[in-house]
Amino acid sequence: MYRRMIFLKRNLSFHACLCYNIYIMGHLKYFVGALVALLFTLYTWLGAGTISPWLRPWALWFALLIAEMMLIFPEQRRTENLFDARKRVLSNVLRDPFTWCCVGLFLFLTLQWLNAATFLEWDATTRTWTAIFPPLDWMVHPDAEAILATTPKATSGAIVKDPYFSWLPWSLRADEARIVLDWFIPIFVSLLAVRHATGRHTKRLLMVYTCIMTCVLAMGGIFDWTMGTQVLCWGREAKAFFFATFGYPNHAACFFPAVMLMATGLLLWSYEHRERTRVPLILYIITIALCGISGVLSGSRAGVLFVAAIVAFSVFYIPFRFAGSWNWSRRILVSLLLLSTATVVLGTAGFRMYAIQANRDRKEAIAAATTEEEKENALRMPTYAPMPAFDPVIDEIAQTEWATFFENPMLMRSGYQGILALRQHDEYFWYGAGARSFSRLSGKYIDPNNPEEADWFDKRMGIGQANVHNDTLQFLAEHGWIGYGLMLACTLCLLVPFMRDLLTSPRHTQNDIVADRCWLNRINAFTLFAFIAILLITIHSLMELVFRSPACLMLWGLLFVCAPGFMPRRQKQ
User: What is the torsional sign of CA 235, 240, 244, 247?
Assistant: First the structure.
């Protein structure tokens, strides 16, 4: 009897440990996805990832952790054990061209950081010369100490000494070249991890989590807007109005409309594939509403235009896709809902444009009045109270000369900054001069024989000159054709499989909830809206510095790698 009890106790202990290990391993499969979600949250909430001192202590270590977990605890398929899953992930990572394009880009950016010039700059605050040296002491220019000791005081200016290997990729300042390493390496490693070490369900969960996180972010931004605060998270003061953690309005104007499109795609995909029991559809509806409001209140004309365009597209597309499967009562109900939404969004923008013009006419009439009767008539004209951070944006849209704006797609609103970036690119054609070098070098490309350029440069007073406001031109100027070409190669490695899935999705058997079986209606709903969101971010990057925000860059990449999780599996013959 005693021996039986001992055997039973040991047997129960073994089964208890086995069940516990199975439970732990079953949840560890979500560990990689949870780390990527945490990285995305940190980038988004920490000033949209644009404040480099907040990223430097942890960003590269986080990338190393995600890379390790991708190879140690990948998500297992039903028919494989952990060792088979590790072998599969390692094999797929090594065969993926995206991996080697990323390795090439990382090496290029690392060389630019290590092979930095010795940069000496006059500090007006301390009235001394400060030096920004390369990370490795033996690469510091030998004359640097002598220059610091013998150079007289100045009011401004900088002295640049050649890098140790002038024939290799180099950068003007090592501290600024390090910034892009904290952006690209963690984000691209995360995309590799999601692409190869997570399953379909985890990819969908990442998109759902993005909706939840963005809802919280949008509510914080709306609260900021109503309070008119200018204090960023943890008490950091911003120089101008910001939206939630986005210190630059155009980053918020890109991020929230892109998530709005993503949530719309999730809503339609869940409706088609009967996913309503897993995630309530109300979550996506709330996300769409909050992101639409956030895009409008971001303080950017791009945000207002993007939200208006998304609403207009959805009003026409949703009935086109689903009207054939609805009865008449549902058709009328949905049509009324969509028309009312379009009326509220587009009508509000139209009314604000009318109100701005009415206020302007009233002010001009009062100023032009010469008699008491004319003044009284002017005072009787309608007046509308302006909405802070909204009316100025609508006014800016109304006054924009759109024909001139799109006259040159590459320069667009960059103007002379784009021209100066092209001049810098001509001088540093292959390697560029390193991250953020444009802000240091742009002044020297002003044509002294062109008084218009000199006058423009003086009037700008340094405002907005640190960036080109066109990511393509800035990457070309700062990283040359080799660095920018590697970025394009990484993009193509993401784009080609994404487009293949998008264009072949009509071949898959689809739920009969879509009655109209035409080719357009058989395209996967989420992948279609993800493609439009990717296109929106890409187009905006030609007019703004969108990819200077890691939050926008990571959202753009996640839309690529998470889309396959929404594709129906091929039916076995």
Answer: negative
Instruction: State the SS3 of 237-263.
Output: ECCCCCECCECCHHHHHHHHHHHHHHH
Task: Choose among 505, 494, 537, 539: nearest CA to 190.
Answer: 494
With vertex at residue 185, the alpha carbon angle to CA 431 and CA 89, rounded to the nearest 5 degrees, is: 125
Structure-block tokens of residue 479: 């990283």
**DSSP letters for 174-225:** HHHHHHHHHHHHHHHHHHHHHHHHS-HHHHHHHHHHHHHHHHHHHHHHHHHH
Rounded to 10 deg, the angle between the 550-562 and 471-504 helix axes is 20
Neighbours of 101 (CB within 10 A): 21
Helix (H, G, I), strand (E, B) or coil at 171: strand
Which amino acid appears at position 439 of this protein?
S
pLDDT single digits (tens) 325-357: 777 777 788 778 778 877 777 777 777 777 777
For residue 130, list its beta bridge partners.
Answer: 121
Separation in Å, CA 330 to CA 109, 334, 337, 401: 55, 6, 10, 42
The 10s digit of each residue's pLDDT in 73-125 is 888 887 878 888 888 889 999 999 999 999 999 999 999 998 888 777 777 66
| Total Cβ atoms within 10 A of residue 131 | 16
Residue found under tokens 């914080």: 220
Burial of 248 per CB tally in 10 Å (0-12, 13-18, 19+):
buried
Angle CA 30–41–181, to nearest 5: 100
pLDDT over threshold 90, residue 324 = no
Rounded distance, CA 306 to CA 312, Å?
10
Rounded distance, CA 339 to CA 351, Å? 17
Residue 243: phi and psi, rounded to 5, are: -115, 115
pLDDT at residue number 512: 60
How many C-beta neighbours within 10 Å does residue 81 have? 11
Nearest alpha carbon to residue 191 among 110, 261, 253, 101:
101
**What would the pLDDT profile of 275-298 be if each residue is shown by its tens digit?**
655 778 888 889 998 998 888 888
Residue 217 to residues 16, 110, 290, 529: CA-CA distances in angstroms? 42, 33, 9, 21
For the chain, counts of helices (H) and of strands (E): 22, 3
Ranges of H-type helices in 273-401: 281-297, 301-322, 328-368, 372-379, 391-399
